[in-house]
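fold-stage: in
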Amino acid sequence: MLDEETGFVPQYICNKTCTEILHVSLNLGGEFIKESTATTFLRQRGYGWLLEVEDDDPEDNKPLLEELDIDLKDIYYKIRCVLMPMPSLGFNRQVVRDNPDFWGPLAVVLFFSMISLYGQFKVVSWIITIWIFGSLTIFLLARVLGGEVAYGQVLGVIGYSLLPLIVIAPVLLVVGSFEVVSTLIKLFGVFWAAYSAASLLVGEEFKTKKPLLIYPIFLLYIYFLSLYTGV
């Protein structure tokens, strides 16, 4: 506020303003010194990492499916390869074996478990157990026979090849009262599943030993079907 007579700011106003500025500066300076002392103390004690601020990494903002390594297009393609095992259809079926995944077979096994419940929830854990240990048995037998296959590959192929049994499940509900037709459909489903799995797992390296691996695969799917039908 200017003095009307002199045109200058009165001395007492100037003194008051300077005092306020000095007070604020001292406070800010005190806080700065205090913060600097705390930072130094933490760093001396080895806790400096608490003060570090991490920059956002673009890789941390990946979609959930990508984070879990789930490729829906790849899973869909493998499902088609298993359901249509004929070479004439032009599918690269070896991708099911050569590029195994976990989530696709697990989803198929869980879905087969759900349609096999019939009010008995223990069937779910039993089917998953048979999938894991049955695949382990096929894997060990394949290795003994000289096959170059990994356990993850066997696990994926056996899991995906349950799809034919899922396909025939609603048909069995319709023709369940016709015993002969029901039996034929069951045999067709088991042969379909076993052929899909065996054609992927039984390679040329087995030569004359193919039946030794095809037979346990066939028995494994018969057992899976028995868990569904409750036999």
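fold-stage: in (second)
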Amino acid sequence: MGILHTFWNSPIGPKTTHFWGPVVGWSIPIAALADSKKPPELISGNMTTVMCVYSALFMRFAYMVRPRNYHLLVCHVANESVQLYQLSRWARARGHSQKKDEDAGGA
């Protein structure tokens, strides 16, 4: 019971945004992971790029904020990973890697 009481009253416990922010934030990488089964033509390259930048910035924030929020850091690392995967799927579907190969071979 003491451990639960300590967690409840801690600076990163359920009474704070340091706890609920990451809990709600996990919906973004979970949704992106679910979207990885959809066709890559449905991916927005602009939005996925913005999500990559957003997660990179907030990874730094989560590490620098006091108290350090490792739960938020892990959430954004997961989101960055999934968004980079989605961005690579989008680029392959658009033929960006094929274009570079053709340019290198034709020069």
